[in-house]
Amino acid sequence: MNWSLDKIKQHQHFDKSLNFIKLISIVGSTEVILKLIGFVSGILIVRMLPVQEYALYTLANTMLGTLVMFTDSGISNGVMALSGKVWKDPKKLGEVLATGLDLRKKFAFIALTVSTPIIIYLLLKNNASWLSAVLIFLSLIPAFYAALSDSLLEITPKLHQDISSLQKNQLRVGFGRLLLVILTIFIFPWTFVLILASGIPQIYGNSKLKIINKKFVDSHQKPDPVIRKEILKIVTRILPNIIFYALSGQIVIWILSVFGNSTDLASIGALGRFAALMAFFTTISGTLFLPRFSRLADDKEILLRYFSFFQLILFLAAGFIMLIVFLFPAQMLWLLGASYSSLSSELFLIMLSNCIGLIAAMSGNLIGSRGHFLNPIFVIALNLGTVILAYFIWDLTKLRGILYYSIFNQCFSLLVNYIFSFSVIIRAKK
């Protein structure tokens, strides 16, 4: 036995594997705490807000997420792809980061200008007063401002695998958000107050991220026109996809906000709280696997091995989540409160859709971290085709019909992402 252990320890990959396992355990344990904090905050909000107010909260958060996607428009993909090539050069990294941040500011102005009347209209359509609609919109601005630089500032520490600094910062932000929610929700159970409570801690967290970046990046660099051109090339290739996914990714919310009612909108928002189960795996993969995959040499065998290993982890994670949903639906719905206790079938459907979507999205992100993206015209045509087909099969104005469509669409996305990813890997050098 001792001889076998010694032989294992002497293996050339032993130290690297051991360090990676330690890193996963550290990231995993911290992510459990982070997601638990977020989950507790979410459940507290679901239980304390009236159904009508929670419908507005769901709509406001959906619009915030969509606005952030429009503002990014693939900039973070471009920054990740270019940073992965120069991650050891502080000056080059500084130029890439400065260029990405500058582009995001410009995109943010356009996105905010275009979306303002749409946000106000949808809030009014869902029975918000003019005063409430204006206050909710104003509260979105700090959260939106914080999201402008959040994901970009995390790229460099991820590439250098400075995970402990990132997670300490995330813990500060998470605890700050939970504290503000607890301090405000019992006195001011209003949507705009809770959105402010979410955005303010992230602004503080971003200031800490800038300090973390100084260890690896020359922060005095200015935006570079050549790098801007390279990032915009990637943005141009995937912007139609971003726009389409920003709308279709939350199609359940959009359809219900226009054609449905506040009760269904609140229900789908409450069930979405369990998406935190998937966010745990998304964060771990985004922190550990995507930067490493971005740094890999252009070698077919290496890329295929890493990609296949990543898929195995994703399927195990999705299977674990669905097992929990299947065994404990009543207990999960109890957490949401009596208003949502009859949604067991809807819970299963939305979690199945989310699990398939998790695998599809992370597979696309993995190959995208190396600068490869699907033709946007093809993606849009394919997704429009699934919408049209689903229209003749299910009633898309009903919650159940929308969830069936969502599963159907995610399956198509997964299949297409697999075909594209493997075709890219096969074309790589030996």
UniProtKB/TrEMBL annotation:
* Subcellular location(s) of the protein: Cell membrane
Q: Which GO terms describe its cellular component?
A: plasma membrane
Record field: transmembrane: 20-46, 107-124, 131-148, 178-200, 238-259, 265-290, 302-327, 347-366, 373-394, 406-426
Q: Which residues form a coiled coil?
A: none
Q: What is its main location?
A: membrane
* Entry membrane topology: Multi-pass membrane protein
UniProt keyword Membrane, yes or no? yes
State whether keyword Methyltransferase applies. Answer: no
Q: What is the designated name of this protein?
A: Polysaccharide biosynthesis protein
Q: Which organism is it from?
A: Flavobacterium panici
What are the leading ranks of the lineage? Answer: Bacteria, Pseudomonadati, Bacteroidota, Flavobacteriia, Flavobacteriales
